[in-house]
């Protein structure tokens, strides 16, 4: 069916955006990434946006190089986990370890999940103190390599550039059911980087 080819095209384009980010590691790449995402959301058949005609672009915090961090992956005994969605359903993952990092005098860690379905993929959702105010209450995503959202790594060092944090598709439309960031990935400080809400969120 055509929708499957459309989805293939969408994911290919997303993967290409992240490949450019990995290759350049320059702030200007963020501007191109944001512009390209707006174009996809405004025109692509697989866009999460319901009313493309009224779509005026996604909102973001200003780019800040300080939010580009290198985290250290600490493996752990794999454990199966079921991550609930914002609506009905859940997605099965394997918790494979944690990534530790420090930013703005804060030391933190996030659980690293591996998608159990398809060919697998690293998934890194998170919550922080902006949720329910300037960002979606259910958290944001930083990495989802099964869908091309991959900022790169070398050995046990993983790139965590929160300027590329983004909302799940369910923020744009209720027809999407998306995994929520688990409680263990709730950071005690605000991540004022990446995608933000353009208007006041609904109560969570």
Describe this entry's structure for a reader.
The chain is α+β, with helices and mostly antiparallel strands and 204 residues long. The protein has one domain. 20% of the residues lie in helices and 30% in strands. It has two helices and nine strands; from the N terminus they run ααβββββββββ. The strands form two sheets. It has a seven-stranded antiparallel beta sheet, with no helix packed on it. The protein has a two-stranded antiparallel sheet with strand order 1-9. Strand 2 and strand 3 form a beta hairpin. It is globular, with a radius of gyration of 16 Å. It starts with a helix and ends in an 8-residue tail after the last strand.
Backbone shape: globular
Low-pLDDT segments? 200-204
Question: What is the beta-strand fraction?
Answer: 25-35%
What is the succession of H and E elements? HHEEEEEEEEE
| Spatial extent as radius of gyration | 16 Å
Secondary structure topology:
Layout: H1 2-24, H2 27-43, E1 59-60, E2 68-84, E3 90-103, E4 106-115, E5 122-126, E6 140-144, E7 153-154, E8 157-161, E9 195-196
Antiparallel strand pairs: 1-9, 2-3, 2-8, 3-4, 4-5, 5-6, 7-8
Quick overview of this protein structure:
This protein is α+β, with helices and mostly antiparallel strands and 204 residues long.
């Amino acid at each position: 069916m055509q929708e499957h080819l459309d989805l293939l095209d969408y994911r290919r384009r997303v993967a290409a955006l992240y490949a450019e980010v990995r290759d350049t590691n320059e702030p200007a790449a963020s501007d191109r990434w944001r512009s390209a995402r707006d174009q996809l959301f405004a025109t692509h058949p697989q866009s999460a946006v319901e009313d493309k005609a009224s779509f005026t672009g996604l909102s973001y915090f200003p780019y800040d190089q300080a939010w580009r961090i290198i985290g250290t992956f600490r493996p752990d005994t794999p454990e199966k986990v079921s991550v609930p969605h914002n609506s009905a359903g859940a997605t099965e993952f394997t918790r494979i370890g944690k990534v530790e990092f420090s930013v703005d005098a804060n030391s933190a860690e996030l659980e690293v999940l591996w998608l159990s379905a398809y060919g697998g993929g690293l998934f890194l959702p998170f919550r922080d103190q902006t949720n329910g105010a300037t960002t979606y209450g259910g958290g944001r995503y930083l990495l989802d390599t099964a869908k091309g959202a991959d900022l790169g790594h070398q050995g046990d060092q993983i790139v965590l550039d929160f300027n590329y944090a983004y909302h799940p598709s369910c923020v744009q439309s209720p027809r999407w059911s998306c995994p929520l960031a688990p409680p263990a990935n709730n950071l005690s400080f605000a991540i004022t980087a990446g995608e933000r809400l353009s208007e006041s969120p609904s109560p969570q």
